[in-house]
Amino acid sequence: MPLYLYIIPSLAKGGVFLFRNLRMREGLKNRWYFDEEGFWRPHRHAVLEMGFDYPEADTWLDQYIVIDETGDSKTYRLWFHDYSLSTITQVLNENGFVIEKVWGDLTGANYACDNDWIAIVARKI
């Protein structure tokens, strides 16, 4: 279930929701590497990284299989969904928000439909 379904109903009336969205994909990653210590484990481990694209649903998946020195493995799946300004506006309006500001990034750049980022300040009504 998308994260916004958890956040939006719990925001108090008058609360502000700041949304940012990376709209352009970095490309599908298919690689593997070893790490002495790092994000996935505090000790030596291997990471098999794979990317899957589902353009019909504006969704993609980054999957990581982490294998430690003992041979134990764990799979992590990170799901992402692309929103355009019109699709996130619809979601916000359906959940009782009005959009107050829209930028092209989190530094306040002007928004254009080909921006990589959308930053939105929406207020719960």
Describe what this molecule looks like in 3D.
This is Methyltransferase. It comes from Sporomusa silvacetica DSM 10669. The protein has 125 residues and is mainly beta. The protein contains two helices and seven strands. A four-stranded antiparallel β-sheet has the order 2-3-4-5, with no helix packed on it. A hairpin with a 4-residue loop joins strand 4 and strand 5 (73-81). The longest helix is centred in the C-terminal third of the chain and has 10 residues, at 85-94.
Strand content: over 45%
Task: Name the average pLDDT.
Answer: 82
Uncertain runs are 1-7
The tally of structural domains comes to: 2
**Radius of gyration computed on alpha carbons:** 18 Å
Strand order of the largest sheet: 2-3-4-5
How far apart are the termini?
24 Å
Structural class: mainly beta
Shape: elongated
DSSP summary: helix tally: 2
> Can you say what the CATH homologous superfamily of the largest domain is?
Vaccinia Virus protein VP39
Q: Which topology of the largest domain does CATH recognise? A: Rossmann fold
Number of strands: 7
- Tell me the name of the CATH class of the largest domain: Alpha Beta
Biggest sheet statistics: 4 strands, antiparallel
> What order do the helices and strands follow?
HEEEEEHEE
User: Helicity level, as a percent range?
Assistant: 10-25%
